[in-house]
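Hello,

Our lab assistant flagged a job as stuck in the queue for most of the afternoon. It eventually completed. Since we weren't sure the result was trustworthy after the delay, we are filing this so someone can double-check. Below is the sequence as submitted and the structure that was eventually returned. Let us know if re-running is recommended.
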Amino acid sequence: MYFQFLSVIRKWLVSLFLVWGTIDPAFANYSCSVSTTDVVFGNYSVLNPADVSSTGSLSVTCELISGATANVSYSLAIDTGVSGSFSPRTMMKGSVPLNYNLYQKQNYSIIWGDGTGGTQAMPPKKCKKLKNKTPVCQDDFVIYGLVPMGQTVESGSYGDTIIATITF
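-- returned structure --
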């Protein structure tokens, strides 16, 4: 019997994170925001002899609000979602879980998390130096998702909500 499962991470970000900071000595004010595109796995079949993979994206945009210059350095972490665990994360259809995970690398070697439970937050990144002539910088990241094969679950739509946190 062939079953198809629509597995969707419905939202990657519960809300837009806006961070204001002040940098000495120039007292420059800047803001940074995170935006995402969903990781959508599509159909999953218990009879498929392969894992199901998909990608999404996460973008960080920092903008100089006032002041002469600002050097912006940040790290990115994502939470466990509904499962409360990084390994595995679970999408849910009511009380029925479907295991999956999110990774920093295409080879699925680094679970993207907050640095606990065998995961890694995205290592600190530096936006280019923000100044009046170039007041905006944007970094884009690929999110690699994987649903392991061999799970026996009900047909239907599964989802999870992940919160991304940017730290300066």
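-- support follow-up --
The delay was a queue issue, not a problem with the job. The result is valid. The chain has one domain: 5-167. The domain at 5-167 is CATH 2.60.40 (Immunoglobulin-like).
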